[in-house]
Amino acid sequence: MSCATLGDGLLYNSHTMINQRILSHFHESAELKIQSASALARPIEQAVELMFGALSNGNKILACGNGGSAADCQHFSAQLVGRFERERLPLPVMALTTDTSILTAIGNDYSYQEIFSKQVQAYGQPGDVLLALSTSGNSANVNAAIEAALERDMRVVALTGKSGGTTAKLLTDADVHICVPHDRTARIQEVHLLTIHCLCDGIDVALFGGDENE
Fold first, then answer.
1. I need a surface site. Which of 77, 125, 127, 177 has the fewest CB within 10 A?
2. 28: which DSSP letter?
3. What is the rounded CA–CA span in Å between residue 63 and residue 76?
C-alpha cells in the first residue's frame, strides 16, 4: 500500500469515527432531554412561579455561574432585559459574571470564592431571586453566593447536575432545585440551556398569557 493510500485510509477512518461521535452526541442529548422532561417539569414550573412572583413585586433576579454556566447566566439575562420571543418591557435581571473590574478586584483582594457573594451582598435585597448554576453543585463561589442570598432573605433557583453536590445541601424548602439526572458536563449544560428557555417562556406566559399569535 502506498503512503497516499494509507493516508486516505486513515482520513476515511477519521471521518467515519467523527461522524459516529457526532451522531452519538445528538442521540444522547435528545434522549436525556426526553428522559428529564417529566422529572424536571415541576421544579421548572416552581422556578417560573418564584421568579414571576419576585418580578411582579418589584424585585429582581441575580444570576451566577462559572465558564459555560457564566455564559448561560448572561444568555438568561439578555433574554429578559431584552426579549425572548415577544416584545415587552425590560425585566430586571443581572448576570454577576460580566464586570471584569469587580471580578478581578474581588478575586485579587479577597478570593475567587467571593466574586459572586460580595455582589449578592451589594445588590441583593429581600425578595430577590438568585439563579445559581453549577453542573456539579460543588462550585465554591456559587455556593458562597447561595449562602449570601439566603442570609439576605432571597430565594434561590439552583441548576445543577449529577447528585446536586453541596448546593443541594444548602437549599431550603422555599428554594427550587433543578438537578439534571446525568453525570456528563456537556449533557447537563445542554439541559440547563433548555431549562433557561423554559424559564424565559414561562415568565412571558405568566406576564401575558398564551402564545403571542393566539
1. 125
2. H
3. 8
Tell the burial category of 101 from Cβ atoms under 10 Å away from its Cβ (0-12, 13-18, 19+).
exposed
Average pLDDT over residues 162-170: 97
pTM: 0.91
Phi and psi at residue 83, in whole multiples of 5°? -150, 160
The secondary structure of residue 124, as a DSSP letter, is: -
Phi, psi (5° rounding) for residue 77? Answer: -60, -45
Residue 54, φ and ψ in degrees, nearest 5: -65, -50
Determine the average pLDDT of the residues in 131-149.
98
Domains (range + CATH), the chain: 37-208 (3.40.50.10490)
* Under 8 Å between Cβ of 121 and 148: yes
Question: How high is the pLDDT of residue 207?
Answer: 86
Starting at the edge strand that comes first in sequence, how are the strands of the sheet with 93-95 ordered? 93-95, 61-64, 129-133, 155-161, 176-180
pLDDT, mean of residues 35-61: 97
198-to-42, 52, 194 alpha-carbon distances in Å? 12, 13, 6
The DSSP secondary-structure symbol of 138 reads -
**SS3 labels along 42-95:** HHHHHHHHHHHHHHHCCCCEEEECCCHHHHHHHHHHHHHHCCCCCCCCCCCEEE
